[in-house]
Write a structure and sequence with these properties.
alpha+beta; 23 strands; 4-stranded mixed sheet; globular; 13-stranded mixed sheet; 478 residues
Length: 478
């Protein structure tokens, strides 16, 4: 099934369950909480507030995002009868990127209809946007300036069997040949995407075979995908989870009555590690491959067209982009070439930001001669220690319960492929000597007790689970 068809198939079930839950909620008794928590912030902080390190600053990005140039976006109506893009839906997307202070938006539209359009058209420039051009003067990206002065860089990509990102031009050929290439899943397609200036990612890793991933040797993969956590078929067939579990749990957040939970926290109802994708990542790392990892928002604004208590639809672009981000470490957040280089090198981490924006998180390896960053290769002859500074929740109100944060350092040994937890704990910095060849990655979990007061009459139980917060791409000893 094409990715877009899968998304639309899940949409009706999500909307139906949310409507039923909203109706049932109206029959329950609700009481206003005695002590309301501080006002919920629907925005995200500027990524620079997460902390610079060694000349590198954080740049917040969305990698896997659909615009009206995907056939299934905007409730399946991305264009009007005359073929013009759905401007209100596009306006929602643009506003969401500003509200979440996203620095780079790596659009990944389906070949239907992005392959039919001129490349510059896919940048969806409006108002005072300006193109960013190649040396030959051709547009390769665009820059939108938000009302508060924040700048967002748009790039073009696609999502079909593979997910090319940050293309600088269309792949070569006629429109029909472009469609065929964008739907490709072999080395020739990868070469075409690289030739067009892009990187090659794989979305929905949970459903991709190791044979495919070995054959295409992507630059990066998704280790978490939102639709995979929600879609009943994917949950059943690939994640081993109850098919309707996410829909049933999240539907409670459609409640609009007094005492309702904060709608943005709906992700807490179904957030789970995507174990098959992580296991695949480990297997490929154990084979000596270098693979960056991202989380895929897969936002289409096409699943829950029901107004929640905050006045927004359940799957608004703003809400979904508020949930999680990919943080690239760059010299200049406004330089698309630098962002692309960081993604290619794996100098990034993913952050589930609805659990809190992570301030001060830092992973590096210290040796006598130098400091190594995420994605770097450390010679096996050099004694090095991995250092992890645990993050704190940005602007955490002291009146809220304190979260519990823990880091894990995981070694994927090469060439044996053994996966070992080298260290875990809440100490910061966490210092771990690197024992030999392999890929070393860090993940951070959180028990988000500070969110319990925002769950209203659902009670705080959802905030008592240990949840994935950060996944950092590896460093390598070779």
């Amino acid at each position: 099934m094409k990715p877009g068809s899968r998304a639309l198939a899940a949409a009706a079930a999500l909307a139906t369950a949310a409507a039923a839950a909203a109706a049932l909620a109206g029959c329950r008794g609700h009481d206003e909480p005695a002590d309301a928590p501080p006002a919920w912030d629907k925005r995200l902080p500027d990524a620079r507030e997460l902390g610079a390190r060694r000349g590198l600053v954080p740049a917040r990005g969305i990698v896997h995002l659909h615009s009206p140039y995907s056939h299934d976006a905007c409730d399946g109506a991305p264009r009007d009868a005359a073929g013009a893009p759905n401007e209100p839906c596009l306006a929602d997307l643009r506003a969401a990127l500003c509200q979440t202070r996203t620095d780079f938006a790596a659009l990944t539209d389906h070949d239907d209809t992005m392959a039919d359009e001129g490349f510059a058209t896919l940048l969806s420039m409006r108002e005072a946007d300006r193109p960013l051009t190649s040396g030959a003067g051709e547009p390769i990206a665009s820059r939108m300036t938000c009302p508060d002065g924040h700048a967002v860089t748009f790039t073009v990509g696609g999502e079909n069997e593979l997910m090319p990102i940050m293309l600088e031009r269309h792949v070569a050929g006629t429109v029909a040949e472009r469609h065929a290439t964008y739907n490709g899943e072999d080395a020739a397609a990868v070469a075409a995407f690289h030739a067009a200036g892009g990187l090659v990612w794989v979305a929905h890793t949970e459903s991709k075979s190791l044979a495919l991933l070995r054959a295409v040797a992507p630059d990066g993969i998704e280790v978490y995908n939102l639709h995979a956590n929600i879609d009943p078929d994917i949950r059943r067939d690939f994640l081993g989870l109850p098919p309707a579990g996410a829909i049933a749990a999240a539907a409670a957040f459609a409640d609009t009555n007094p005492g309702h939970p904060e709608p943005d926290l709906a992700l807490l109802a179904f957030l789970e590690p995507n174990r098959p994708a992580i296991d695949t990542w480990h297997t490929l790392l154990g084979e000596g491959r270098h693979l960056a990892a991202t989380a895929g928002s897969d936002a289409h604004q096409n699943a829950i067209p029901i107004t929640f208590a905050d006045g927004e639809r359940g799957d608004s672009y703003r809400r979904v982009l508020r949930w999680f981000s990919n943080i690239a470490l760059v010299a200049d957040p406004g330089d698309p070439a630098g962002v692309k280089a960081a993604l290619r090198a794996g100098r990034l981490f993913t952050a589930i930001e609805v659990l809190g924006s992570p301030v001060g998180f830092d992973v590096r390896a210290q040796a006598a001669a130098r400091t190594y960053e995420l994605g770097d290769v450390i010679p096996r002859t050099e004694a090095a220690t991995l250092l992890v500074d645990l993050p704190a929740v940005h602007a955490l109100d002291p009146a809220l319960p304190a979260p519990e944060v823990r880091a894990r350092v995981i070694r994927i040994e090469t060439p044996a492929g053994a996966v070992t937890e080298l260290a875990a704990g809440a100490a910061s910095p966490l210092a771990v000597p690197l024992p030999g060849p392999g890929a070393y990655r860090v993940e951070v979990t959180i028990v988000p007790r500070h969110l319990g007061p925002y769950l209203g009459d659902l009670g705080p139980a959802m905030a008592e689970r240990e949840l994935p917060w950060l996944y950092a791409s590896p460093l390598y000893v070779e």
